[in-house]
Specification:
The complex is a heterodimer of chains A (211) and B (224).
Chain A (H helix, E strand, L loop, with lengths): L5 H8 L15 H6 L4 H25 L8 H23 L1 H7 L1 H4 L5 H11 L4 H31 L1 E2 L2 E2 L3 H5 L11 H18 L9
Antiparallel strand pairs in A: 1-2
Helix pairs in contact in A: 1-8, 3-4, 3-5, 3-7, 3-8, 4-5, 4-7, 7-8, 8-10
Chain B lengths: L5 H45 L8 H7 L3 E5 L5 E3 L8 H6 L4 E7 L2 E11 L4 E8 L6 E8 L13 H5 L7 E2 L2 E2 L2 E3 L10 E3 L5 H17 L1 H5 L2
Parallel strand pairs in B: 9-10
Antiparallel strand pairs in B: 1-2, 1-3, 3-4, 4-5, 5-6, 7-8
Helix pairs in contact in B: 1-2
Classes of the chains: A mainly alpha (211), B alpha+beta (224).
Chain lengths: 211, 224
């Protein structure tokens, strides 16, 4: 079996589109609201979740036949918590400003439903390589939504991208104002909902039948 | 092997915890030094913010450029150099009665930066107050907080709020007169700044922080 067989490609790519963890499974919404006021923390958060999901999936998949059934959720939690702690320590050492910005949300990756969901639903039943790909796919699917939301929030809320000014002063002179609401958490929910709306309108198979 | 037996479950859990503990202890101890350097850099950047030096890339270089000296206030109000390791939290230092004063030079004029700390609505707040060489006029301030409400109490960390302090006087008839008044209720513009409407408790926290900590520096402030 090749490393990127048709099935594996599917495992990797569907979470980016039709089975997106945020917009279709509606998981991990809370952190999507909290860290998306600017692009940089959103990207770091997305990458952190991707790394943690991938490696936690890999470890749980390797252990899946040895894990005592009655404490499997605890084992999953310990594995996730270990990776989260490592990522948080590494960020504190090498990306201090970002870790200050993300503050508690890095620690709260432990409670991100995407992780537990993938571990319980996928890694416990599939081989290490598929699980690893599944983790990467779901993490990137999450990161993708975070980046879309953060792009609109930073552009319309602060007039900048990655902290660089995009909207020139001349436009402000003409009376343009940054939308302060964009910086508030509710706007993340609204943008997220718009993404879901767009996706469901485009893909009829995502719509439930009305009866 | 029966993975559902009690003894297997217990042994499995025990081994897992030991492995994880060793792994985390190793990561934590090997990154400790780099992390501490970051915190130290961050503290130095905060100190520099009080003299309106922002967007600092290398705090060490800026410290040298502004000739920042870490001094301790003596009982008679004079300053003596502080020689121990640089501190990153001044809450403990003030509680231990070690009153730091950072002496620095901005365009040839001496400025003094005093660290302060206090409590806001949700958690600790802290800051640095820079004074001119008359030890009375505020040159600049820096405030930060751990978890004040965004848009309300957290506004104390914005340049807009902090800019109000420049030029205010600290001591009024021997007591600390520098005050954060209720928004729009400033009666003595030489000493008072506007608080944040909607962030009343945090504003009061800043006010109390200024009064409580600057009071401790009285020997230094009155020694002219």
């Amino acid at each position: 079996m090749s490393l990127f067989s048709k099935k594996n490609q599917e495992v990797l790519l569907t979470p980016l589109g039709l089975n997106n963890p945020v917009t279709v499974q509606v998981l991990g919404i809370c952190s999507a609201l909290a860290v998306t006021a600017q692009l940089e923390p959103a990207i770091v958060m997305g990458l952190s979740v991707t790394i943690i999901t991938a490696f936690a999936n890999l470890v749980i998949s390797l252990l899946r036949n040895t894990v005592p059934n009655r404490i499997r959720i605890i084992v999953q939690l310990v594995v996730v918590a270990t990776f989260v702690t490592i990522v948080s320590e590494v960020l504190k050492a090498f990306a201090y400003d970002v870790s200050v910005q993300l503050s508690v949300y890095i620690g709260l990756i432990i409670t991100n439903c995407i992780l537990m969901g993938r571990l319980e639903a996928f890694a416990m039943m599939n081989g290490p390589w598929e699980s690893f790909l599944d983790g990467i796919g779901n993490g990137l699917g999450y990161a993708k939504i975070l980046i879309i939301v953060a792009f609109f929030r930073e552009l319309l809320g602060s007039g900048s991208l990655f902290g660089f000014k995009i909207i020139p002063d001349a436009v402000y002179e003409m009376g343009y104002l940054n939308n302060g609401l964009m910086l508030m958490p509710p706007m993340a929910l609204i943008i997220c909902a718009c993404v879901i709306w767009y996706q469901r309108a485009k893909h009829k198979e995502l719509q439930e039948s009305s009866n | 092997m029966n993975t559902n037996s009690n003894s297997y479950t217990i042994i499995y859990a025990a081994i897992m915890v030991v492995i994880v503990a060793f792994l985390l202890a190793f990561v934590s101890s090997s990154l400790k030094e780099t992390q501490y350097k970051n915190v130290e850099q961050d503290t130095k950047k905060q100190i520099l913010s009080a003299i309106n030096v922002t967007d600092v890339k290398d705090a060490e270089a800026e410290f040298a450029k502004y000739e920042v000296k870490d001094m301790l206030m003596q009982a008679d109000g004079t300053l003596a150099p502080y020689t121990d390791a640089f501190q990153v939290s001044y809450k403990g230092e003030i509680a231990e009665k070690r009153f730091h004063v950072f002496e620095c030079k901005v365009d040839g004029a001496t400025k003094y930066i005093l660290p302060i700390y206090g409590a806001g609505l949700w958690g600790p707040i802290w800051g640095y107050v820079a004074l001119n060489d008359d030890k009375d006029t505020v040159y600049g301030v820096y405030f930060s907080h751990a978890g004040e409400t965004p848009g309300l109490g957290a506004e104390i960390a914005t340049p807009k709020f902090q800019a109000q302090f420049a030029g205010k006087k600290v001591t009024e008839n021997g007591a600390i007169g520098l005050t954060v008044a209720k928004n729009g209720k400033v009666t003595k513009p030489d000493y008072e700044v506007d608080g944040i409407s909607g962030g009343t408790i945090t504003s009061q926290g800043v006010d109390a922080m200024l009064k409580d900590c600057l009071k401790e520096y009285n020997p230094f402030l009155s020694n002219k």
